[in-house]
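Report of the visiting student (M.T.), summer placement. My assignment was to run the structure pipeline on a short list of targets and document each run. The first record concerns Phosphate regulon sensor protein PhoR.
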Amino acid sequence: MRLWRRELWRLVLLAGLGLLTGWPLGAPGAGLALGLALCLGYHLYQLRALHRWITHDSQSEPPAAAGLWGDLMDRLYRYQKGQRLTQKRLLDTLRRIQESSEAMRDSVVMLDRHGDLEWWNSAAEQMLGLKPALDRGHHITNLLRDPRFVDYFHRRDYREPLTLASPIDERRVLQFQITLYGDDERLLMARDITRLHRLEEMRRDFVANVSHELRTPLTVLSGYLETYADQAELMPPRLARGLASMQEQTTRMQNLVADLLLLSRLEIDRGGADHAALDMAALLEAVRRDAEALSGGRHVIAVELREPRALVGSEQEIRSALSNLAFNAVRYTPEGSHITLSWRPAAEHGACLEVIDDGEGIDPVHLPRLTERFYRVDKGRSAATGGTGLGLAIVKHVLLRHDARLEIDSRPRQGATFRGLFPAARLTEATAG
Ligand code: ADP
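After the run finished, the C-alpha cells were exported:
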C-alpha cells in the first residue's frame, strides 16, 4: 500500500512540476503533458528492464530499481529461486528413482492410462526386448503379443502373477505382475524365474518318475501276495495275519502311487483335450453309487440336481474330484450321517458342485492347510481310513484346471461342505445325451 502511494505521489509530483514550469511560459497544458510523459517514460523504462531481465537472464539478480518496480522484481526473483529449488529437488528424486530402478535386476515398465509405454529400465530391454528409440509411446500389447498376456492385461485382475516365456528368448521364463496406480496408470514388473521353474520341473519329474518306477514292483508284490492269500488257510495263523497286513499296506502304497501319478499328470499336462459337456445327473448318480458301496449302507447318500446347465470339462477329472470328496465324506463321518452330492446355481450365473455332510466337521484352524499334500487333521485316523493324504490336493488341482475354486465351510460338530465354484463361462445349456 505504501509503495502504491509513493508511485501515486511520483505521478502527482511530475504532473505538478510540469504544470508549474509551463504556467509562466503560458503553456500549462504542455507542461502537464511533459510531466506525465516523463512519468510514463520512467515506467516504460522499468518495464523494458523487467522484460529484458526475464527474457535474457532471469537467473541473475534483477536490475536495481526503486519503489513498486523494485519490489515486483525482488518478489519475482525470490519466487523463481524457490521454483528452481523445488524443481531441482524433484529432478534429484526422479533421478534417484530411475537409478534405483536401473540397478534392479527385475524389469520395471511404466505404462500410461491407455497402456502405452512411458518409461522402462535396462533390465526390461534385455528381458522383453524393448527398444528406447522405437518403442516409447507404443501400446504394451503390440510388443508383448502372447494371447495369455493380452488377456491378463485387459482382465484388470492382477492379484495373481502371470508366468510366460520371454518374448525374445523362449528358454527364459518370466513372471509378470501388474500394479494399478495414480490415474489408472500401470506398473509392469517382470522377474526372471527360469532357475526356480527348472527346479520345480525337476521336482515334478522326479516325483512322476519315482511313482512310475514304483508301480511295477508294487504290482508284482501285490500279485504274489494275492496268490499266497489264496493259500492262507494252509498257513499258521500268525503268518496269515502278517500276510493280510502286507496286502493291506501294498494296496495303500498302490493307491498312493496312483494318486501321486494323477497329481503329476494334472501338474504337467495342460489339459483341455478331453473337455466336453458333462451329463451331470449321470455323473452324480455314478459317484453316489460308488460312495454307497464304500459306505456299505452306513450312510444316507442323496443327489440334488437344481442346475439345468451342464459343466464343460473333463469327465475323468471331475469324476475323480467328486469321488474324492464323496469318499472323504463317507470316511470321516460317523455311521448314520447324511451326505448330499449337489449341482446347483451359484452367484454371478455360475454353478457349484457340492458335497455336504452332517458329520463331525473340521476345526477352522485346519481349513487353510487342508488342501496341502499329506496334511491331515488326525494323522492316526486318516491312515486307518485308507486315505493317501492327496485327495484334496487332487480336488484343488482339478478345479483350478476348470477355472473353478474350492471353498470349504465347516465347524466342529456341524458337518462340512466342500464346494467347487465354476464360472458361467464353464457352463453350457446343452446337456450331453
Ligand atoms: P486323506 O487321504 O487323509 O483323506 P485328503 O486330502 O482327502 O486326505 O483330506 C485331508 C484331511 O481333511 C483328512 O485327513 C481329514 O481329516 C479331513 N477331511 C476331509 N474331508 C472331510 C470331511 N468330509 N469331514 C471331516 N474331515 C474331512
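The pocket of adenosine-5'-diphosphate is lined by residues 324, 328-329, 332, 357, 359, 362, 370, 376-378, 382, 387-389, 391-392, 416 (CB under 6 Å). Residues 2-93 form one domain. I thank the supervising group for their guidance throughout the placement.
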